[in-house]
Amino acid sequence: MAKYIGKRIVPVHCGRWDQTKTYEMLSIVLEETSGDSYISRRAVPSGTAITDTNYWMLHSLYSQQIKDMSDQLMAAEQRIKADNDATEAAIKQDNRETREHVDSSLQETTETLTETVTQARTAMTNQKNAFDQTAAALNTRMDAVLAAGTGDGQTEILDARVDAEGITYESLGAAIRSIHPKVSEEIADGLSLLPFMLNVHDGYYLNKSNGGLTKLETACYTDRVPCKEGDVFHVLSNGYMLGCAALLFHNNEIVTHYGDDDYEHGGAAIAYDITIPEGVNWIQFSCITKSRGFSVSKDEATESIGCLADIHEELDSIAFRVKETDRVLDDIVVRSINLFNKDDERNLRNCYYEGNGTLKEMDRAGMTHPIPVFKGVTYRWTSGYGFWGGNAIHIVSTDADGNVTGSVRAVLSEDHNYVSYTPLKDMYLRVKLFLSSINQTMFCREDDWPEEYVPYYLKLGKVDLEGYATVEDVEELIEPLATKEDVKEFEPNALYGKIAVFDGDSIGQGSGTDGNWAKVIGPANNMDWHNHSVGGGTITAEIYNSSGSPRHWVSRYIDTIHTNYPSLDYLIFEGGTNDADLLRSEIDTKFGELDIADFSGNYDDSTFTGALDTLFFKATSYYPSARIGYIVAQRMGSASGGYGENNNRRKFFLRAIEVCKKWGIPYIDLWDGCPLNPRLKCYYDSSLDAQGNRDAGKAYIDGQHLTATGYAIVSSKIEAWMRTL
Q1: Model confidence over 601-637: pLDDT tens digits?
Q2: Residues 656, 632: contact at Cβ < 8 Å?
Q3: Tens-place pLDDT, residues 146-178
Q4: Which domain range does residue 44 map to?
Q5: Which residue of 93, 396, 476, 615 has the fewest CB atoms within a 10 Å radius of its CB?
């Protein structure tokens, strides 16, 4: 069935369609006759025809362009395999003959190599299945040659300088480095056939001289977009350009740019077209106006498609692995299973990085160089017990240069002999270590973990590309992507890049340990988000703390929000729990009366009902075009004081819903609209403390406030609801 992964719902692929089977909602099947794919709108009973639109919707049309590109990639792979077989056979033949002709001239050696390569290519036609066996033999032979110090590796290098097209390069490194631009260009050509995707970033514009970024708060720029000759991009801006309107690239080289002289300034708005010339396969845009006043569309499209997060995640993963592939190919080495090089100059001594990027001094401590790790692969390393405190081991994620980008925590094994961690994405890690144990430190894939210490080493040999980007990776990425026609059936992400402000009490505020729904929804949709919720806050004004200081009054704080954010897209309120508890003894005078016909703006905000009237009157007056909503909190507390049928909190929440209906404010009722309930042990165990409930994966820390698990459950519902506002 479809499942929730990383803040999105992922449909499930069910293979070929079988009319005799039943299918769940969001199941994707292949109709073999037409080659098209369909996705189920709802649960499908057996015997239902694929043409029944009540149950099935066309998901992906068979694309001949994608198939052609896949065929081209497969052909390229076959050429590479053919060249590997030919080279291998030539080396084996050459190793036998060069021992008898070491004093022969270079011309004679070249003619011998040419003859043996021709023989190998002819033999390969009838020996396609010999690759795996000969590859293993080649690795064994090369290791033996190098160990013996025979020097035959020079002959191998001479042959490796000749590529599949017969071009001879000046050095082996030049031959290897020539591979990446060719592959990069083929990938760019292939990606240009995919649906147009555009991410816009604020705060910088492009420098036309070198393609770098120049900081400017009001400006914006886009990611590079793959393109091909003849593509047309339509650019629209409500402000002047700066630096350059667009940079055009061939791979990483700037071919040309569009600047101030290439379009007319039309006052408040500028619109122009860019047609891609020959030799260009990437384009990048920038503008002095922030992203909300800037758009780019391609060909006949009427608007740019927003963030397709799942596709970008896969593209980022491929880019990471391609980068590491290029690095390994450039080295032409075989690496040991121990990925930690104790002699690397980037290793830190007597200091380490904290999670926020601060460098902290500490005797006897150290930190490794950046080590590349891949999503879903479990890694293990040695560590001295007790040095970092308790069983938690702190590590940081970095870029390729070692600059800290985040932090994660791993856990020691029960016997305290090693640490394990499985990354959630491709990244680089730096881990702490004892300087006294640096000569015995290992960092390996868990399935490679040895019984005894294995040192880090590099040696010349055939490169093992397992785990790196391959032609199959690109094919797997392209095959499930939607076509242009499919994308037109879906709405862009309504939340992407919008300004969102949240306000409420401790349920909305959350904590540094457990987070909150704003912290989940905002970053997931690249929103400019701000959470002003405060623990102990009330909707009602004139309620004070025991010390006499005023509480956080949501009904009056709307004035501060308007001052700080004169324009916004989403304004989401939550509250009422503290009002119900604190006004219990004064409910006759402080609950307030609701007049559904009174829209005058003159309300008593020292009563709960009057405070809500005041809040919604000001919110709609300040932001007539914004999307405003109200969250009724989940069930909480004891049966007598929290979620009983006639308890005080529920009475206040029901009044809040009445006032929402009066003002036409959309609301989401988590009380009745989500399964969380502290009386159910699957969500809360009263015998455990707060950390115990967190560790057990419960939804509540105390029967009222939520854990990170609880916020994940309600955030998915709130995010879906916000998309409907």
Answers
A1: 999 999 999 999 999 999 999 999 999 999 999 988 7
A2: yes
A3: 444 444 455 555 666 666 566 776 776 666 666
A4: 3-62
A5: 476
Under DSSP, is residue 430 helix (H, G, I), strand (E, B) or coil? Answer: strand
Q: Determine, yes or no, domain membership for 631.
A: yes
Residue that finishes a domain, picked among 425, 455, 485:
455
- Could you give the CA distance from residue 34 to residue 129 in angstroms, rounded to a whole number? 33
Q: Are residues 432 and 560 in the same domain?
A: no
Does 672 or 115 have the greater pLDDT score? Answer: 672
Q: DSSP class of residue 74?
A: H
The lowest-confidence range among 468-482, 509-523, 647-661 is 468-482
pLDDT band at 714 (very low <50, low <70, confident <90, very high): very high
Tokens linked to 435: 């300087």
We report the CATH number of the domain holding residue 38 as 2.10.10
Residue 265 has what pLDDT?
Answer: 47
What DSSP line would sit under 122-155, residue for residue? HHHTT-GGGHHHHHHHHHHHHHHHHHHT--THHH
| Residue 474: inside a domain | no
**CATH code of the domain covering residue 237:** 2.60.40
Nearest-angstrom CA–CA distance, 146 and 334: 12
The two structure tokens encoding residue 610: 């009057």
| Calpha distance 556→532 (Å, rounded) | 13
Statement to judge: residues 303 and 421 lie in one domain? no
pLDDT tens column, 170-200: 776 666 666 656 555 555 554 444 445 567 7
Whether residue 609 sits in one domain with residue 674: yes
Q: CA 112 to CA 106: how far, in whole Å?
A: 10
Whether 79 is covered by a domain: the verdict is no
**How far is C-alpha 594 from the geometric centre of its chain's CA atoms?**
47
Alpha carbon 723 to its chain centroid, in Å, reads 20
Of 433 and 582, the one with more pLDDT: 582
Rounded Cα–Cα distance for residues 287 and 258 (Å): 12
Total domain count for the chain? Answer: 4
Determine contact, residues 474/190, Cβ cutoff 8 Å. Answer: yes
Q: Does 106 map to a domain? A: no
Judge if 571 and 654 occupy the same domain.
yes
Is it the case that residue 462 has pLDDT exceeding 70?
no
C-alpha distance across the termini of the chain, in Å: 28
Task: Identify whether residues 353 and 294 lie together within a single domain.
Answer: no
Whole-angstrom distance, CA of residue 213 vs CA of residue 206: 5
More reliable by pLDDT, 29 or 101: 29
Same domain, 343 and 287: no
| DSSP-based three-state secondary structure for 268 | coil
| Distance, CA of 517 to CA of 698 (rounded, Å) | 16
